Amino acid sequence: MLLDAADSQLVLVDYQARLMPAIFEGAEVLANASRLAQWARMLHVPVWGTEQNPEKLGSNPPELRALCQKTLPKMHFGAVSEGLADWLRPPVRSGGGNARSLPKHLQKPVAAPVPDRAAIVLAGCEAHVCLLQTALELVELEFDVWVVTDACGSRTERNRDAAFDRLAGAGVELVTAEMVAFEWLRTAEHPAFRDVQALIK
Predict the structure, then answer these.
(1) Are strands 119-124 and 8-13 parallel, antiparallel or unpaired?
(2) Cα–Cα distance measured from residue 174 to residue 165, given in angstroms and rounded to the nearest whole number
């Protein structure tokens, strides 16, 4: 039950300019998200971002945005409803050989794509709204979801903690940023160990 960097993707949910000042312990939450994204890049883990109604709430901080491969603007609270799962799954591979020339009743149905990186490490704001709904949608699609608690926030502790309780009840693994980093590394002999360690204060 340890995270594997080769099987992981990181999704950073809605760390937006007009939202973060209202988040409980917002500066610490944002700092942990930034470290998480930097560690992901060092260890070749894909990083994706989302922004809720960016015209109203602003963009994610430029330094966080720069660490993401792509950032998904959305209006639904759950990012899967806006197409996030399409980014997380590999493209469907067409069958080999001459299967297309066979009559339809002899052709094998195309299987749904299986994620190459099925462990989705998720962090963001607000924990009880956009993060929660995105996590539960991903669980429904049979991704393995890991939520980084110290990189998540809500306007109140009560809402944040209620989100964590509900996520745990749904089978989501609750972890911290450092747990993720050290599980991705696995050993002090990893070539990136010193670089990862340098971000731990």
Answers:
(1) parallel
(2) 10
> Once rounded to an integer, what is the mean pLDDT over residues 11-20?
96
Q: Which of 135, 100, 153, 146 minimizes the C-alpha distance to 8? A: 146
Residue 96 tokens read as 């080999």
User: Which single residue is written with the structure tokens 């699609």?
Assistant: 141
Residue 12 has pLDDT above 90, yes or no: yes
| Residues 159 and 25 sit within 8 Å (Cβ to Cβ) | no
- 153 CB contacts (<8 Å, ≥6 apart)? 23, 24, 25, 26, 29, 125, 126, 127, 160
The strand pairing partners of 124, in sequence order, are 13
pTM of the full structure = 0.88
Q: Which residues sit opposite 123 in a β-bridge?
A: 12
Closest to 3 in 3D by CA, of 42, 33, 37, 45: 45
pLDDT tens readout for residues 114-126: 557 899 999 999 9
90 — pLDDT class (breaks 50, 70, 90): confident
Three-state secondary structure call for residue 20: helix
Crossing angle of helices 177-185 and 26-42, in 10° steps, is 10
**What is the DSSP code string of 74-134?**
ESSSSGGGGTHHHHHSPPPPPP-TTGGGS-GGGSPPPPPPPPSS-EEEEEEB-IIIIIHHH
